[in-house]
Amino acid sequence: MPLEQGPYDEVAYTLTPDQYGQPVKKADLPVPALAWVRHGDGRHHLVDAVATAWTPRAVQVQYTADDDVSALSVWVWANAVIRRWDNHE
Known about the structure:
The chain has 89 residues and is mainly beta. It contains 1 helix and 6 strands. It has one domain.
């Protein structure tokens, strides 16, 4: 499958509860991240996101669609997420 950055179709694939597993740990504060998300066009796109929950296998990420309005949330495999270490000091 080709790996490309947006633009992309707003429909994204998410893991099922059986896939992402338990226990789910909710983030106290969203964690800045980059995530590879598979969209309706069949390609994986690198999106600027925040991690909002995780399990030992997967991470729930939220990001803004290309329209800069729609907030999307999906579960992806943990190795598809890269934590961003933003320093805003």
